[in-house]
## 1
Amino acid sequence: GVAFMDGQYLPMSEAKISVLDWGFLHSDATYDTVHVWNGRFFRLNLHLDRFLGGIERLRMNLPYDREEITSILKSCVALSGHKSAYVEMICTRGSSPTFSRDPRQAENRFMAFAVPFGSVANNEQLERGLHVAISETVRIPPKSIDPSIKNYHWLDLVKGLFDAYDMGAETALILDTDGHIAEGPGFNVFIVRDGSLTTPAFGVLPGITRRTVFDLCAEIGLSVAATDVSRAEIKQADEVFVTSTAGGIMPVTRIDEAKIANGKVGPITSRLMNFYWQKHDDPAWS
Ligand code: PMP
């Protein structure tokens, strides 16, 4: 992979930050990840909107504008030589030359990198569906500031993952402050019931893949509601799937000890998965 830092393109192994960077010390950072498929970015503008929106709300300043960031990301991909890549852009608070604790004094840092694309779910998992456990852990900040700021805070999600492993599952879903289903480590969730979709609305990252599912559903005429999803509802669903940039649409066929419906990947999930990958060849979606 290739990284961009301090105005230079570097091999990944040389891309390093200071331990004094507030991004590292306080998770005072925002980032976004976008993927490149067969040489083309997928929904780059939506990822840039979310990234630049986060930077503005965190009151960070970048010496690069949207066009320059786009060209840096494209150069990272081109220099990496990968046709399909996972590209990350990061802005951290940085640190102050005088070690001041006033965040206004810090010099914000931008970095980016492109590494080979590897889906978080392998083919076997995509064919049989994931086994997910519901953890009692509650997803808290950065929602309290603004859920649309994509931040590295994952202590709750990592705790959820360990709970899931203890229950013999592959990954986790954690709860919102009202005890409803929120999201998982790096993904949003959807349930299908009687042909309609529902996804949690509150206290979750507004995922770009989640948004893409809304767009796909609008095209095929499926109804989607963004509203609370209870633990009972997810277990009684006809189909369940999770969504992320790094994995696309990934079916879930088992929650805790129980199968979802007959335990096979459902027809609406399959249809959306196919449609999602078809859109990668459509320049209008790049
Ligand atoms: N929720 C969380 C907490 C995430 O970290 C991510 C992806 N990094 C998502 C949801 C999915 O978002 P997207 O579809 O934009 O990748």
Note: Residues 183, 186-188, 205, 207-210, 243-245 surround 4'-deoxy-4'-aminopyridoxal-5'-phosphate (CB under 6 Å).
## 2
Amino acid sequence: MRVDVVTIFPEYLAALDVSLIGRARKDGLLDVHVHDLRDFTVDKHRTVDDTPYGGGAGMVMKPEPWALSLLSISEQSPAGARPLLVVPSPAGQVFNQALAHEFAGREHLVFACGRYEGIDERVLDWASESFDVLPVSLGDYVLNGGEVAALAMVEAVGRLIPGVVGNPESLVEESHADGLLEYPVYTKPSFWRGRGIPPVLLSGNHAKIAEFRRTEQFIRTAARRPDLLASIDVPSLTATDRAA
Ligand code: ADE
């Protein structure tokens, strides 16, 4: 998969050199390119922002550097692939594991990291001629720009690419894989600072352990994220059960 990130702070993306994503890049599983938006300006001050039409606080990112950067990137798109342009924004659709899987199925992802009050809206419309365009939010809070959101999304998507995570089974058992939160985990020692572990985990009975973990997933999800329970597909749970 090819990933391009356009930003005025390329150094923010240095984290993509380390850990699993860094290794995936070295192994040729992920082809990541980070671009400085200022390299696509044509004035001597390398200006990327201007005042908003209609007035108001802050500055807006000028459209032309975005057009020039995106044109250059679309020329480098893998043959036959229509790139997905992800625009991190608190005004976007909220990112989740389902979206991460959708992104992982694409050949070419491009992240347009805005700063200030955002990017001139016409860029999104213009870009839709050659990109699928999707504004995406990391959650209901405001960051200073799209870089941290792009980092989070590249990591969530990258680890779904076959070969990036060493043991693919860990992807099956983690939070959100089946719509529920992950069960609690424990390691040695079995007694620590006055606290033991659930005895079933020492029983060697794999069916009982699986049942215990599944129950814990439901208890934890109900306590922390009851909103998730409404959308999971449990064949044994009828509509009447759900309503109860
Ligand atoms: N840029 C600023 N806030 C953001 C958020 N919550 N998600 C994605 N991009 C953002």
Note: The mean pLDDT is 94.
